[in-house]
Amino acid sequence: MTFRNDINGLRAIAVSLVVLFHFAIPGVSGGFVGVDVFFVISGYLMTQIIVSRHQEGRFRLMEFYQARCRRILPALVVLCAVLLVVGLILTLPKDYVSLGTQVMTSLTFVSNLFFWLDTGYFQPSSHDLWLLHSWSLSVEWQFYLLYPLLIVALCRYMPISRGRWVLLAAAVASFAVSLVASVHWPTGAFFLLPARAWEMLAGALVFLFPLRFSPLGRQVAIWTGCAMIAASAAFATPGMLWPGYFALLPVGGAALIIAAAHQGCWLLNNPVAQYLGTTSYSIYLWHWPFAVWLYYFGLDKQPLWVGLGILASVLVGHLSYRFVELSAARREGWIHRSSPLTKYSAVFGIAGVGMVAVVTEGLPERLPRDYRAAIAEIALPIVTNGWCFYSVESIETLPIGSRGHTCQVGDRNGTLDALLIGDSFAGHYGPFWDAVGKRHAMQIHTISTNWCFPSADDDYTGPTTSRGFRQCMVNRDYLEKHVGSYDLVIFAGSWGVIDQQNKLDGVYAAIEETAEATPLLVIMPTPTNFDVNVGDHYARSLRFDLPFDIARYSKQRDVPSREANEKLKTFASAWDNVTFLDRGALFHIDGTPSDVTEENIPFGLDTSGHLSIYGSKMAAEAFFASRAYRRFQDRITDLSRQPRAVALEEGDRSVARPSEG
Q1: Is residue 660 a part of any domain in this protein?
Q2: What confidence score (pLDDT) does residue 301 get?
Q3: 450 and 596 belong to one structural domain
Q4: Average confidence score pLDDT of the chain
Q5: How far is Cα of residue 257 from the mean position of the Cα atoms in its chain?
Q6: Which segment of 90-99, 169-178, 337-346, 610-619 scores lowest on mean pLDDT?
Q7: Do both 158 and 304 map to the same domain?
Q8: Helix 197-208, helix 160-184: angle, nearest 10
Q9: Reading across the β-sheet that carries 416-422, which strands appear in turn?
Q10: Residues 315 and 195 in one domain
Q11: How many CB atoms lie within 10 A of CB 234?
Q12: For the chain, what percent of residues have pLDDT higher than 90?
């Protein structure tokens, strides 16, 4: 197969765009299209290898797979091994568990499935995933497994001149899937092969439907292709549906460059482009972990460190190419000469270390005891650490049903009965209400499970096929039947998400029904949503003795939550016996709103706005010092003096009706 310097230069463009995008260099908001370019190149080269060798009668399926393994696995295995060693020294236990999982899924080429189920490529949380970029390798490998089988099957029954039309139809079908899926299942469209296959098949079609160009036409074609890729890199954004219609721009540009086969273009055929193209795979592998480490230590916004990160990506990529890739490719290389048993042992051995990291829960014993004690309460209150959040999604051993209704906080012998109900945001307020209940002789029955916000209908913010949905229906049935038996009911939910999904009407109806049935209803606010996991950043700052400044973290994700809080506050103001506790009453220092406590420890835990155990407790202390607490205290005192039946039947019934004015 003749070496194509234009394709090698195209690799340089692709890897450069991806690297610049991941290091957040301005002007490259669509640099992620470099992966689309890689897919086109891969589809072209694989088709050329398979079809050419098959026509010559020398294509062997196992040889093809072995060649792909030699190309992809050695450098990936070395990367995974280094990350596991460095991660053992520098990461927190939960991060090491995540790394172990990523290593296992990457080396088995199913990481795209893992990331599809676990995260989104453009989500802030993606910056905690050292091997997120391996999703593209998994997609390619899945394509490599199926594609040669399809070619061989086609060639058995028809000449490739006819079979190529089948591949054209497959490309059109995959593109149609990508258009539909990018609208309805955007994460799946981004990560999964059915919506990505058309990009690789686009490269295949360039080989199967060769175009003829005049010398001038080649120059026009290659510069047009470069302009298409440049435009997509400059104007595409992570907020776009991808891969949708706009993906035709970089895919079409790459296909046009390959079809032109112009070897004399200075943009692609210069020493820098050829070097970057030759080392592109190793640079691609190493650049993202460097970007993640910068984020991990809060250095991702500092130009000097960003520049050093890019430089390190190229230098380490060079070493990986020189000592790993070439050793695997050349017959005289030690990797190439190693026995199959040695190679397989290396792959499964590193994957096994990843499994150990998961099974041992990240080896927490490796961290100093005083540090472990210091961050023990920087965790979500849940049944596994002594609180009440009944997370049937994360703890599959929890049974669906009434067992999720047995947890209480506060004063177990209190004279007042309260019910705290909702989703995980009700769960995270468990320590808060435990402190309030103990102060006011109140026992608080806590019912909370995944995505189960208080609602009068079957609306649900999670997947309705989940275990959480089944538990949610049990919880809402309990509320409907027993709401009248409580002196106080507390609602909590992820109001921003609920509002974004247009499901607040069910919450409003639940408020009305509950206000009619109980003397007092309290609605808790959704806390601040940050664009990063502030709990993790605090834990890292403590571990490495780094300064922690919560003001440096943006809050764009918080806009929907603030708006939804205001909507509920306005709605609650129309009812005499409904109280909305706003953020200012819970999260402040001496009356000044704050996202951290006096000890500079964040109330929040993650990007969703959950409170930690510590944050929930400190929110209670802040609440006790607020004017809102004094008003709440008066209401609780009235409830203590007046039995529930009197409050609802003989006491002023206006408490259960919208107030006038």
Answers
A1: no
A2: 85
A3: yes
A4: 92
A5: 34
A6: 337-346
A7: yes
A8: 150
A9: 408-410, 442-448, 416-422, 488-492, 520-523, 578-580
A10: yes
A11: 13
A12: 82
